[in-house]
Design goal:
With 507 residues, the protein is mostly helical. It has 24 helices and two strands.
Length: 507
C-alpha cells in the first residue's frame, strides 16, 4: 500500500533539530536490531512482499517508481556513459573550455552508473576531500557533542524509510548517515545539525561512500546553499523573499493569490529548498534536478519552485478551489503529478528565463529590506557560488607539484665530446697559467684575463695585443653545454606532456 506524500513529508515546522512536534520514540534498544524490517515497514504501512524493490532501491512509499515506461534505451545509455567517462578523465579541460557541453549533458541526465562520481566532480568535493586527507577519519573517531548526537539518532529512521539502505534500524545505511551528520557537527560546530541536512545526506549516501558523501554535503552547505542550515534560518527566509519577488515576474496571478491570503513563502518553500526537493518530487525527477543543480547551482531550485507555483496557482480556473489559506496550502501539498514528472520539469526549467544574475540582483534588494526591518544578519554565510563553473573558477583545483621525471635522463658527461677530458683541460690551464700571469696587462695598461683553453690562436693574439679588451668565452664549450641543456629540457617537457595526457590532472 502506497503512502501519501503528506505522510512522507518532513517536519518543516521544526527544522533545526528540535523534536517536540515529533512522535514518541520507540525503545532505543531497537536500534541494534538489524532484522527489524518489520518495525520500520509496519510503522509506514508496508508489509514485506507487497512490492518488489525498484531500480533505485525503494520498496514502497511516494518515491517508489515501479516499472518505468520511458527508460533510456541501453545503447543510448552506453554512449552517454562513454562520453561522461571521457569528461571525467579530462575534467579540467572540459570545465575550462567546454562547460556548455557539460551543462547540456547534465540536463540530459547523468548515467546512473556515474552519477555519484559526477556529483563529486561537479561540486568540487573530490578535490576538497583530497585537500583534507584523513580529516573525515579523525572526525569519525571523535566522540562529538552529545546534544547533537541525541537529535541525530532520533532522526535516522525518518529518512527514506522505504529505501533498502535505511529500512533496517541500525543497518549500514543508518550507521553511515549517523557518521556523516555527526562529522558535520564537528566540522562546523557553530552550525551544528539541522534536520533538513539528513535527507540531503541520505540521497548522497545512496550514490557514494560515507567519506565522499560528507565532503559533498560540505560543498552543498558552504557553496550551493550557504547559511541554510545555520541557527535562525535567516538565509532560507531571505531566499523566500527573493523567491516571492521572482514569482511576480513569472506568475503574477499566483503571486497575487498568495499575497492576498498572506501565505508567507516560508510556509511552503522551506521543505522544497532546504531538502532540494528530495522529499517532494518523484524520484526520477529528484535525480534529474540534482544533476542540473550540481552543475548550474541554486537557480535550478528557484526555477523548480516557480514552475510548480505557476502551474498550480497560475490561472483563475486553478484558483476556484483555493478560496482561503488552508485550501491553498492543501493544494501545494498535493501538486498535480503531471507537473512533477521529470520530462515536463526539465523542459520548463531550461525554458524559464531566471538567471543567477537576477537571483543575485534580487538578493541585494531583499538584503537591504531585511537590514531596514530586522538589522544585520546574525549569521554571515560565505558568498553563494552558482554551480560547478563558479566553484571551479573561485577555487582553482590544487594540483600536486609536477616533478620532472623524464623518460630519458641526460647527465652532463664527465668527458666533453668536443673538447677532450676535464683533467686534460685542467692540466693545460695550469701550464698556461704561468705564461699568462706575466702578461696580465696589455700595451694600454688594461687588464687582460687569462685566455681560456681552446680559443682560436688569432683571437688570443688579438686579446694579448690589446685590440680587444673583452675576454671571449670558449665557444665550443659554451655551444656544447647549451646543446646539452636544451636536450635535457626537451626530454623533460616531452615526458611531462605525455604524463599529463595519460593522467587526470584534476585528481
Amino acid at each position: 500500500m502506497k503512502k501519501s506524500r503528506e505522510d512522507d513529508a518532513p517536519e518543516a515546522a521544526s527544522p533545526r533539530g528540535t523534536t517536540e512536534n515529533l512522535a514518541a520514540e520507540p525503545d532505543p534498544c531497537l536500534r541494534s536490531d538489524l532484522s527489524s524490517i518489520g518495525s520500520d515497514s509496519e510503522i509506514n504501512g508496508f508489509t514485506n512482499g507487497d512490492q518488489k524493490i525498484d531500480k533505485y532501491g525503494f520498496v514502497g512509499g511516494a518515491q517508489y517508481t515501479g516499472d518505468l515506461q520511458n527508460e533510456v534505451p541501453p545503447e543510448v545509455l552506453r554512449q552517454r556513459e562513454s562520453k561522461w567517462l571521457d569528461m571525467l578523465n579530462s575534467w579540467d579541460k572540459w570545465m575550462a573550455k567546454k562547460h556548455k557541453k557539460v551543462k547540456l549533458r547534465c540536463q540530459k541526465g547523468i548515467p546512473p552508473s556515474l552519477r555519484g562520481r559526477a556529483w563529486q566532480y561537479l561540486s568540487g568535493s573530490k578535490v576538497k576531500m583530497e585537500q583534507n586527507h584523513g580529516r573525515f577519519d579523525e572526525m569519525d573517531q571523535s566522540p562529538g557533542d552529545p546534544t547533537w548526537l541525541d537529535v541525530i539518532e532520533r532522526d535516522l529512521h525518518r529518512q527514506f524509510p522505504f529505501h533498502e539502505m535505511f529500512i533496517a534500524r541500525g543497518g549500514h545505511g543508518q550507521q553511515d548517515l549517523y557518521r556523516v551528520l555527526k562529522a558535520y557537527t564537528i566540522y562546523r560546530p557553530e552550525e551544528g545539525y539541522c534536520q533538513a541536512q539528513a535527507p540531503i545526506a541520505a540521497v548522497l549516501l545512496m550514490h557514494m561512500p560515507a567519506e565522499q558523501a560528507f565532503w559533498c554535503l560540505v560543498q552543498i552547505c558552504e557553496k550551493y546553499l550557504p547559511g541554510y542550515y545555520s541557527a535562525g534560518l535567516e538565509a532560507i527566509q531571505l531566499d523566500g523573499e527573493i523567491f516571492f519577488a521572482l514569482l511576480r515576474k513569472v506568475s503574477p496571478v499566483a503571486h497575487k493569490h498568495l499575497n492576498k491570503y498572506k501565505i508567507d513563502p516560508i510556509l511552503y518553500m522551506t521543505e522544497w529548498f532546504m531538502c532540494a526537493f528530495s522529499r517532494t518530487l518523484p524520484w526520477v525527477s529528484v535525480l534529474r534536478i540534482w544533476d542540473m543543480f550540481f552543475c548550474e547551482g541554486v537557480k535550478v531550485i528557484f526555477r523548480v519552485g516557480l514552475i510548480l507555483l505557476k502551474h498550480t496557482l497560475g490561472s483563475s480556473d486553478k484558483l476556484k478551489k483555493c478560496q482561503g489559506q488552508y485550501e491553498t496550502m492543501e493544494k501545494l501539498r498535493n501538486i498535480d503529478p503531471r507537473y512533477m514528472q521529470d520530462g515536463f520539469l526539465v523542459r520548463e526549467i531550461i525554458e524559464l528565463p531566471i538567471t543567477e544574475r537576477e537571483v543575485e540582483k534580487e538578493h541585494l534588494i531583499q538584503l537591504k529590506k531585511w537590514k531596514d526591518k530586522h538589522g544585520d544578519l546574525k549569521y554571515q554565510p560565505p558568498p553563494r557560488l552558482h554551480g560547478a563553473k563558479a566553484i571551479n573558477e573561485a577555487e582553482p583545483h590544487s594540483h600536486k607539484a609536477l616533478v620532472q621525471m623524464p623518460s630519458i635522463v641526460v647527465h652532463s658527461p664527465a668527458v666533453s665530446p668536443d673538447s677532450g677530458s676535464n683533467s686534460k683541460k685542467k692540466k693545460d690551464k695550469k701550464n698556461s697559467k704561468g705564461k699568462n700571469k706575466e702578461k696580465k696587462h696589455n700595451k694600454k695598461g688594461e687588464t687582460v684575463e687569462p685566455v681560456a683553453n681552446g680559443s682560436a690562436p688569432d683571437e688570443t693574439n688579438r686579446i694579448l695585443k690589446g685590440e680587444q679588451n673583452v675576454p671571449q668565452p670558449d665557444i665550443a664549450e659554451e655551444l656544447n653545454q647549451s646543446l646539452l641543456k636544451k636536450d635535457s629540457q626537451l626530454q623533460s617537457e616531452q615526458s611531462l606532456s605525455s604524463e599529463e595526457t595519460e593522467q587526470d590532472t584534476y585528481l
